[in-house]
Write a structure and sequence with these properties.
Layout: E1 3-9, H1 14-29, E2 32-38, H2 42-45, H3 48-51, H4 55-72, H5 97-111, H6 115-127, H7 139-146, H8 151-160, H9 163-179, E3 186-189, E4 192-195, H10 200-209
Parallel strand pairs: 1-2
Antiparallel strand pairs: 1-3, 3-4
Helix pairs in contact: 1-6, 5-6, 5-8, 5-9, 6-7
Length: 217
């Protein structure tokens, strides 16, 4: 029996990037399916979250993400440009075309059966440090092609009518909170929420308890 779990995930989350390789390997090696449910980042959903943080939160966070990437042997650099924009006057309370389009593309990729592969390829491109101006040229198209997707077709659907994709994201965000948390990455299985890339091992443990089996060689 194929097991399945839900993945709530944001393109702006470095920790979401850091768990991607393990999730992709899990689905490659085991009889399990990931139900990808893209969400907008907290900076877009609730910008006041960052306005209310103790200044130490930011300094610790920036230390931790680089340390965690180094610990896991992952290439890492803050995206150039950041998918979420910020202005001195408005903070994060400004139009956010890049992250909205990215998230809607994630929904479209999921609807085409290649959501996890698309998240894997795009997050590595954005966070892995090898691509400047990821939002320009053919970068996204090439990442989509590596994920087995027709980017021109997918992007045309997203750009022609973003509303249906935005509605899916909103439904994902409601379901995420109902499942027990609001942060990313967050995996849910068997009525339990596993928040954070450092909860991957616990997720796999629960899947094993439920009969997780390796795929045939």
């Amino acid at each position: 029996m194929t097991l399945s779990y839900d993945l709530y995930w944001s393109f702006r989350s470095p920790y979401s990037y850091m768990v991607m390789g393990r999730l992709a390997a899990l689905e490659r090696d085991y009889d399990v399916a990931c139900n990808v449910r893209p969400v907008y980042p907290l900076a877009v959903r609730t910008p006041e979250f960052f306005e209310q943080q103790d200044p130490l939160w930011v300094s610790y966070f920036m230390t931790d993400v680089f340390r965690e990437a180094a610990f896991r042997g992952l290439p890492f650099r803050w995206p150039r440009p950041d998918p979420v924009q910020r202005s001195a006057d408005e903070g994060y309370r400004m139009k956010q075309p890049w992250i909205h389009r990215l998230t809607h593309l994630g929904v479209a990729a999921t609807e085409r059966g290649r959501g996890l592969a698309f998240l894997d390829e795009v997050s590595e491109m954005i966070w892995g440090g090898g691509t400047d101006n990821w939002h320009e040229g053919e970068h996204l198209a090439q990442a989509a092609a590596r994920a087995g997707l027709d980017f021109a077709e997918m992007a045309a659907a997203v750009d022609a009518d973003p509303a249906p994709f935005a509605a899916v994201v909103e439904a994902n965000q409601i379901a995420q909170r109902a499942a027990g948390h609001w942060g990313v990455p967050m995996m849910t299985f068997g009525g339990e929420a596993f928040f954070g890339q450092d909860r991957f091992d616990q997720l796999k443990w629960r899947l094993e308890q439920a009969g997780l089996a390796r795929r045939p060689a």
